[in-house]
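stuck on this fold:
=====
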Amino acid sequence: MRHLRNALALIFVLCSSCTNSIKPEELYGRWNYVNVDNSNPQDTLPDGELELQSPAIIFNDNNDLIIEWGGKKLSSGKFRMEGQMIRYTEDLAGGRTREFPFLIKTLNETELVFQTMEQNVTTVTARKGR
């Protein structure tokens, strides 16, 4: 009986940790990329490219999201949170948009780790900017 109770308690803890929702304000600010890991070796960045391009993802308090690469805006749009998923609606030319998700793997005061939800997964580690 004690083992059953312990197992049920463990299941409860695991399930409740899966449902922790991230609030948008936990993301606000500039996050500078420090590592990009691609599951497809052909998409791997050349040595020194990350330092040269200084990419970042920026979350603003009006739910704007901006991705910078090489000191320029690469992409922009709106985001909303669904649990641990960032739902990003990117603004495209001609008034069109496209939506894609990012899964947050780790988030604390100084580090954000997120990944794309495509077949060829890209995982980004970013540090909170100043």
